[in-house]
Amino acid sequence: MAPFAPIDVPEGLMRALLSAYATPPRAYHSFAHVQEVLRHLATVPSWTRPAEVYLAALFHDAVYVPGRKDNEAKSAELAAQAIDTFLPRAGLDVAYVRTLIDLTAKHGTATPPDADAAHFLDADMAILGADPATFDAYDAAIADEFRPVTNALLYRLGRRRFLSKLLEAPRLFHSAHFHERLDAPARANLRRALGRE
């Protein structure tokens, strides 16, 4: 499958992006996660604003410090600055890129404004419907990221609360494209992670 890359990004933008994802070192929210999101986005049959979705995917976790509440806002700001610096004449809807990134702060509660946003959010959460070994590696990597910044007991309680909230939601994925393929395996992974099987 061809990667999802509807526009060419300048080398300088990509260098800045890779540098951002390298600090601090991340167990899960790394550029490898971005590449996985792009792989899922490539399966979506049609887009209205593919360039903006692509840039949002590239930048959505560029700023990531476990436990911080402003990661998404700072990532959106970094995306806007990079577009202004490297793609000033590309005719991109920067406000929409920022909206998409901001929505990732509200997984489980966000209401996407359109189909592009729904597919973008679903691709970011597609890890929930991965095979059990991949899901378990993701779950362990999130714990690794939080280990230096929170008490282990508090982390486990917060993580259980988050996973339980997801499992209890009537729908995990906004779009039919992701829901039909990933809802059942995602719910099986969540039940297993919560010890409910």
Structure in words:
- The protein is mostly helical and 197 residues long.
- It has one domain (11-193): Catalytic domain of cyclic nucleotide phosphodiesterase 4b2b (Orthogonal Bundle), CATH 1.10.1300.10.
- Helices cover 60% and strands 0% of the residues.
- The protein has nine helices and no strands.
- The chain has helices at residues 11-22, 31-41, 50-59, 71-86, 94-103, 115-124, 132-146, 152-168, 176-193.
- Helix 3 crosses helix 5.
- The radius of gyration is 17 Å and the shape is globular.
- The model has no long low-confidence stretch (mean pLDDT 95).
Quick gist of this model?
Helix content is 60%, strand content 0%.
What's the arrangement of secondary structure elements?
Elements (H helix, E strand, L loop, with lengths): L10 H12 L8 H11 L8 H10 L11 H16 L7 H10 L11 H10 L7 H15 L5 H17 L7 H18 L4
Termini Cα gap: 34 Å
Q: What proportion of the residues form beta strands (DSSP E)?
A: under 5%
Q: How many beta-strand runs? A: 0
CATH architecture: Orthogonal Bundle
Which percent range fits the helix content? Answer: 55-70%
Could you report the average pLDDT, rounded to the nearest whole number? 95
CATH topology: Catalytic domain of cyclic nucleotide phosphodiesterase 4b2b
- Please count the helical segments: 9
Give the H and E element order.
Answer: HHHHHHHHH
Within CATH, the superfamily carries the name: 3'5'-cyclic nucleotide phosphodiesterase, catalytic domain
* Rg calculated over all Cα atoms: 17 Å
- Global outline: globular
Category from helices, strands and their pairing: mainly alpha
Uncertain stretches: none
Just give the CATH class: Mainly Alpha
Integer count of domains: 1
Describe the largest sheet.
none
